[in-house]
Amino acid sequence: MIAVILGTRPEIIKMSPLIRACEESGEDYFILHTGQHYSYAMDRVFFEELALPAPAFNLDVGSGTHAVQTGAILAGAERIIAERKPDVVLVQGDTNTVLAGALAASKSYTRGRGEQVLVGHVEAGLRSFDRKMPEEINRVLTDHISDFLFAPTAASRKNLLNEGIDDRKIHITGNTIVDAVRQNLALAKEKGDTPGSLGLERDEYILVTLHRQENVDDKARLSGIMRGLMSVRKKFGMEMVFPVHPRTEKMIRAFGIDTRGIRLVPPLGFLEFLQLESEARLALTDSGGVQEECCILSVPCVTIRDSTERPETVDVGANTVAGFSPQGILAAAGTMLSRDRRWENPFGDGRAGERILAVLNGSRG
Q1: What whole-number distance in Å separates Cα of residue 33 and Cα of residue 12?
Q2: What's the half-sphere exposure (Cβ side, CA atoms, 13 Å) at 232?
Q3: DSSP at 209
């Protein structure tokens, strides 16, 4: 039996191909939703929108400090693992859910034969090499306690080998985000025309997303980023649309930050956002997932951070890391707007979910 542990919307999206693969093959599995960012009640629309089965268990841990949140997930996951006795626990990415789920499994001996529960880390081996990022701590620790490391690229595998991880545990599968983008973009186009509903035309607008704590909770940094965005809007004369994260909107208001010229819209569902993203001329973001999605969709990307754990996007010319200064953001936007968009997608052929399931089934005889 496979336990799929997830707790954030990006995890739902990236695990959706694996869940579909389990459904199609008749695999014995269940989904545990930790409720790290939202309660399942709020995330239910994501499962419905993506036509995924509902989770069997919901921890609803909510927000809190890293210690409080991680501890609550660890305790809840341990209880469910003991009750359901899976052979393998799968986690994806770099959140507190990932670390806590992996820890709970690695310390459990509840399989049918009294053996240790195995851990599979989907999207293993990503590194920003910035230990100030809590996500970096989560992904490094999870990799070192996992039994299956599903690396999306050769560069990810190299990171794992450089840290002394046994090559026999590492499997290059591609990234499930390719599967998810391809499967869900087709689904999205059946459901409507998000850019059209906003009065936007293909390649005539710039998409913005910001949500990371280090960007939005610092008044000086957030103000500088907004000045950079406004300078991009002014210089290139393209409409700039910003589906604003609730946390970001709260801090913009609290800090009294000027957003003139930037069109703020409410948060979008994944299918709506995917449509908007696929038709943008440029994306300005601090999201790791958006960097990958833009690379797959041939949309140039500017990353508003000091580093990226997706260096493959930079290597193929799909992305550049701008930092936080207004001047850096403006310069990077100009570079990416002039760049040839015919790069090669480095994240695989859209069959990562199938490959991961095949590895797991092979390991279990």
Answers
A1: 9
A2: 34
A3: E
CATH of domain 2-175+349-363: 3.40.50.2000
DSSP state of 132: T
The answer to whether residue 121 is catalytic is: no
CATH of domain 193-337: 3.40.50.2000
Residues 113 and 131: their CA atoms lie apart, in Å, by: 39
Q: pTM (2 decimals)?
A: 0.87
Name the band, by pLDDT with cuts 50, 70 and 90, for residue 294: very high
pLDDT digits (tens, 9 = 90+) for 188-240: 888 789 999 999 999 999 999 998 888 899 999 999 999 999 999 999 999 99
Q: Which tens digits make up the pLDDT trace of 337-355?
A: 999 999 999 999 999 999 9
Catalytic hit among 33, 121, 144, 211:
211
Q: What are phi and psi of 220, to 5 degrees?
A: -65, -45
- 120: helix, coil or strand? strand
H or E stretch at 5: strand 2-6
3-state class (DSSP) for residue 32: strand
Q: Where are the domains of the chain?
A: 2-175+349-363, 193-337
> How many C-beta neighbours within 10 Å does residue 130 have?
13
338 Cβ contact list (under 8 Å, min separation 6): none
**Is residue 190 a contact partner of residue 51, using CB atoms and an 8 Å limit?**
no
Q: Which residue is it, tokens 């996951």? A: 77
Distances (CA, A) of 262 to 181, 221, 265: 27, 17, 10
